[in-house]
Every structure is written in C-alpha cells, then in structure tokens.
Automatic annotation (TrEMBL):
It is found in: Secreted, Extracellular space, Extracellular matrix, Basement membrane. Its main location: secreted. The gene is VWA1. One of its GO terms (cellular component) is basement membrane. It comes from Physeter macrocephalus. The lineage of its organism: Eukaryota, Metazoa, Chordata, Craniata, Vertebrata. InterPro entries: ECM_Assembly_Org, FN3_dom, FN3_sf, Ig-like_fold, Ribosomal_bS16_CS, VWF_A, vWFA_dom_sf. Residues 32-211 form the VWFA domain. Homodimer or homomultimer; disulfide-linked. Interacts with HSPG2. This is von Willebrand factor A domain-containing protein 1. Pfam families: fn3, VWA. CDD domains: FN3.
C-alpha cells in the first residue's frame, strides 16, 4: 500500500499548490443592511403586512450571515424602535423569522428621528456596525413624514450610506428623489403595495452591487460630480492610495489625488455634465501587492437647456423634452385595470414664467376623484402644488422661473385610496429675469386662466 500512499501525498501536494496559485476563493458580498420600516398609524394593517412580507422575501434572496451581509430592522413611529440589531441573527432564515414576527408600532411618522437614531445607535461602530464595510439603508414608506427627513438623511449619505427608498403611495417625488442616493432612477421605487414583488429582484441586485467587496464603485452621480467608495484594502500604516480621474476622450488631462491607507472614499466635484470619466485607484504598499482598480463613470446631463438629451436624473426617463415637450416616466408599479392614472402628459404654451400641462384623464367606473399637480425645479427648490377637480385634465402652472428645468408630476386619486402618478420634465424658455413674478395667493401653486 506504500506506493498508493506516496501517490496520494503527491496528488494532495499538487492540488494544494494549484489552489495556492489560484488564490483564495472569491469573496462574498458583505456589509450592514438596515431596513427602515414605516410602522406608524398612517399605514393600514393590511399595508403593513404586505410590506413585511416583501421584506421577508427580499431577505430570503440575500446572502445573510457571518462574513457576508448583516441586517437590522428599525420601526418608524412616534419614537424609533429596533426590532433586531446587526449581528443579532446569524442566518438568513433567522432574519426572515424576525421580520415575519415584527408587530406594527403605530404612532406618528417621525422618520427624521428614526434616521438620526440609525446614525447614532446602529451605524456607529460602538453599536456593532462593522468598520470599513459598505452600509445600505432600505426605507419602505407610504410617502409621508411628520418631521424633516432631508438633514438626517444627508448625514447618513455623507457617511457613505447608500439609500434605497420604496414608496407605496403618496410620497412627494421631488422630496423622495432628493432623499434617495443618486441617481434616483436606480435607488427610488414607486410601486403599489400589492405589486411589491415586481421590484424584489431588481432591488436585490442593486443592494448586492452596493455591497460587493474588493470593488471600486461610484454613487451620488450628478451632472458635476460623483462619490467613490472602496473596501479597506490598506491601513494607515501599510501604504497609501493614488486616485486618478480623467475624461475618457482626454486621458492626458488627468487629475490626481493621494489619500491615506485608511481612506475608503472620495468625492470628485467640478466635472463636466454628460461626460465619461475613467477612474483608477492604485494602492501603494510595501507589505503586499494589490492590483489597481478601474471604473468608468458617466456624469448626468445638465438640467437646463438640454431638451434633446436623455433625462437620467430623478424621476425622468425616456425621451428628453424641450420647452414644449415632456419626458414621460411611469412612477408606479402595475396598476389594476379598473384604476388607471394619467396615461400621457403634454406640456404646451411654455412661457418664461408659466407652463400649460394637460393629460389624458382617468375615465370609466373608477374615474379619479381629482388630481394633484406638483411642479418643482430639478436642481432643487420649493415645489408648488395645484389641486385639479375630477373631470378636468389641464392646468396652467404660473409663477415659474425663466430658463429653468422643472419636474411636473400628475397624480390621480381614487375612491379606494390608491393613487397613480405620471411625471414629465419640461423647461421654461429664457426671458426677462429681473421682473418679479406675478403675485399669487398664499399656498397657491397655479391658477386656471
């Protein structure tokens, strides 16, 4: 039996050597995933149960466990409540069981308070969050909040948290687009509570993309910049990074930045819109050899004066629009046949300070009870809201700014409590900017001629 023993040892050594040459197996995605669940009294028990079922199905598709993703669940109510913390459950099945067992908390919808709580109590290292791994927030909401969401959400994003928002109802497109990570088209989903299953696979893929280790990635992409993030490949004592950025069409005009070895992110600003940029992350270390990582990122088109370009910003998709056109975007998931919202938006009679908006009305036995027309600048600013009664399918939006790109959202409200929305991008033409806009009554977003 000695020859067979020698042969076995030789074979084992050969396999071990080949395995060492190939290196360790590919790493699994890893990170800390926080589910922020609207558990307030504004959500019906039926809606809460459907959202809870959706989160359970989403968790079943994710690689949860030690060395991979860890999950936490926080309820939004009068005060935030932690259902379970990161690392409390060591398997995907345990996380699913904990989600199914979660009970609705009721109370006010203090989402801003819950976001501040998440920053201080959950995403902090002292609370068990792992340093150096990607952080993702999935906020499921019916659209409203009793307190401001913007400032605490921005603090989380400044820490490198990727924010996904799933709205099941009455949320403001402009406000939620600003709260979600950019681009909003990838991170913001409007879908009816009965159709949440439609986005499960897409959301799973986006979460995994944000958490895959050893990968340079970009987020918060705008027309003038983007944020880069990467896993902790080095330490402050083991080396440093060289970060290079250059327009793909002009590689000789590269910008360079040296960063310490404990850095895991950097934000580029002052870039040109609608431009491809090549990024190189070069780890420099005397301890071990690490290969450079490369990425190509395209900035978004400029918002104003680009009527022929494809809209890539929040809430707009499809063909671009000039001053008298509209880029259409269906914002909800599949709708019941008996409740169909506006099928088309037409923007016409564009003036420097006004736009005429028309749409195909919802007809039949389940005709809309009325329409909400919201308009706000794509680059940020106060939004106007116009209420249009049932039976009418147009309105004139006044008091606008010349030469400005706007996002117009028409929402149809039905007797069942459901809403269906459609959005369009439109631009006011350039005009006299020094003349003050026509005065309107307080709270009025527009007036019929």
């Amino acid at each position: 039996m000695l020859p067979w023993t020698v042969l076995g040892l030789a074979l084992s050594l050969r396999l071990a050597r080949s395995g060492a040459e190939r290196g360790p197996p590919a790493s699994a995605p890893q990170g800390d995933l926080l589910f922020l669940l609207d558990s307030s009294a504004s959500v019906s028990h039926y809606e809460f149960s459907r959202v809870r079922e959706f989160l359970g199905r989403l968790a079943a598709l994710l690689p949860l466990g030690p060395g991979a993703l860890r999950a936490s669940l926080v309820h939004v109510g009068s005060r935030p409540h932690t259902e379970f913390r990161f690392g409390q459950h060591s398997s995907g099945s345990a996380v699913q069981d904990a989600i199914r067992a979660a009970a609705q908390r009721m109370g006010d919808t203090n989402t801003g308070l819950a976001l501040a709580y998440a920053k201080e109590q959950l995403f902090a290292k002292a609370a068990g969050a792992r340093p150096g791994v990607p952080k993702v927030l999935v906020w499921v909401t019916d659209g409203g909040s009793s307190d401001p969401v913007g400032p605490p959400m921005q603090e989380l994003k400044d820490l490198g948290v990727t924010v996904f928002i799933v709205s099941t109802g009455r949320g403001s497109l402009l406000e939620l687009s600003a709260a979600a990570s950019a681009p909003a088209g990838k991170h913001l989903h409007f879908v009816d509570v009965d159709d949440l299953h439609i986005i499960t696979q897409a959301l799973r893929g986006s979460i995994l993309d944000a958490m895959w280790p050893q990968q340079l990635r970009a987020s918060e992409v705008t027309s003038s910049g983007f944020r880069l993030a990467w896993p902790p490949l080095l330490t402050a004592d083991s080396g440093y990074y060289l970060l290079e950025l250059a327009p793909s069409a002009e590689p000789g005009t590269a910008r360079r930045q040296q960063l310490p070895g404990n850095a895991t992110g950097w934000a580029w600003a002052g870039l040109d819109p609608d431009t491809d940029y090549d990024v190189a992350l070069v780890p420099e270390s005397n301890v071990r050899l690490l290969r450079p990582q490369h990425l190509r990122v395209r900035t978004l088109p400029g918002e104003a004066g680009r009527g022929a370009g494809r809209a890539r910003g929040a809430g707009a998709a499809g063909q671009g629009a000039g001053p008298a056109g509209a880029a259409l975007s269906q914002l909800t998931g599949a709708s019941p046949a008996e409740e169909t919202g506006p099928e088309r938006i037409v923007v016409s009679h564009a003036r420097p300070r006004s736009l005429r908006v028309s749409w195909a009305p919802a007809l039949g036995p389940a005709a809309a009870l009325g329409y909400h027309v919201q308009v706000g600048p794509l680059r940020g600013g106060a939004a106007q809201l116009v209420e249009v009664p049932a039976g009418r399918n147009s309105t004139t939006l006044q008091g606008l700014a010349p030469g400005t790109a706007y996002l117009v959202t028409v929402t149809a409200a039905f007797r069942s409590g459901r809403e269906r929305a459609l959005s369009a991008k439109a631009c006011t033409p350039d005009g006299e900017r020094s003349r003050a806009p026509r005065a309107q009554s307080p709270g009025a977003g527009g007036r019929e001629p």
